[in-house]
Amino acid sequence: MSYALITGASKGIGKAMALELAKRKHNLLLVARSEDLLKSVAKKITQQYAIKVDYLAIDLSLSNSPKQVYDWCIANNYTIDVLINNAGYGMSGTFDKYSLAEDSNMMQVNMTTPVGLCQLFLPMLKQQSRAYILNVASTAAYQAVPGLTLYAATKIFILNFSRGLRQELKNSSVSVSSICPGATDTEFSTRANVGNNALKTAQKVNMNPEKVAQIAIDGMFKNKAETIPGLINKLNVFAAWLFPKALLERVAMKLYLE
Ligand SMILES: NC(=O)c1ccc[n+]([C@@H]2O[C@H](COP(=O)([O-])OP(=O)(O)OC[C@H]3O[C@@H](n4cnc5c(N)ncnc54)[C@H](OP(=O)(O)O)[C@@H]3O)[C@@H](O)[C@H]2O)c1
Q1: At what angle do helices 196-205 and 245-257 cross, to 10 degrees?
Q2: Which of 49, 70, 132, 151 is catalytic?
Q3: 20 to 30 A from 70, CA-CA: which of 116, 137, 230, 234?
């Protein structure tokens, strides 16, 4: 019996991916900080689908959290064949608004913990006849985003880390994919403390997390390197390739800092 382990599964895109995998009869391990939310997601899924679900409440900004997640799986005899690194958040405003501790925590959740989980679980994933890693990046990975500077940098890290690892593992049973959502209707903007300008623009183009999750899980099982959900996000990424970087950065700055 094998499980899909999803970080950030208490709400938003992670919760929607848990439901999407439950529909496909995959057993689930849900990880995030909010124990009450994890418990209710697990309860809802087990009532609706005949699958096994367990959860672990843990703060993934702690440096030993990947090892704690791994040890929990080993202690419970949980075999993982899907690892989804979804937990993440942004911090909007100028870079100097935040402390080094706040920067480090976000970099740990968005980059170091996903790397740690890939490192620790890879031997187990390689033992499966078919296994999948899905890392959640962002359309912010395709350009610098003044006003979300460090967040965007964590997402290009995740995207390039995923692409490199994918090539290294191409002759193994493990496929590595990324999903790059744009504005999605979750608690992301609230936690990132995004201002009115960006909020209003996002509201016009927001995708719902269920649709993003469905596209993400499809892309993962189809072994796609990189999936951008939705036409508007695809056009934005094309524009990021087409237009001068300085122009795109000025537009982003207007959106996030004015
Ligand atoms: N929404 C968007 O517009 C958007 C766009 C592009 C990319 N993304 C990416 O999509 C992913 C999911 O975000 P979302 O939009 O679904 O936002 P969300 O609704 O805020 O969900 C974030 C998830 O991450 C978990 N999380 C955050 N900090 C954590 C920590 N320190 N330890 C453990 N878990 C933590 C949260 O759980 P707890 O709070 O319970 O810990 C929650 O389950 C993120 O990587 C984000 O960067 C989002």
Answers
A1: 110
A2: 151
A3: 137
Which domain CATH number covers 90? Answer: 3.40.50.720
15 CA distance to ligand 1 centroid (A)? 10
Total count of domains within the chain: 1
Pocket flag, ligand 1, residue 37 (CB < 6 Å): yes
pLDDT tens, 186-219? 999 999 999 999 999 999 999 999 999 999 999 9
The parent domain of residue 110 ranges over: 2-257
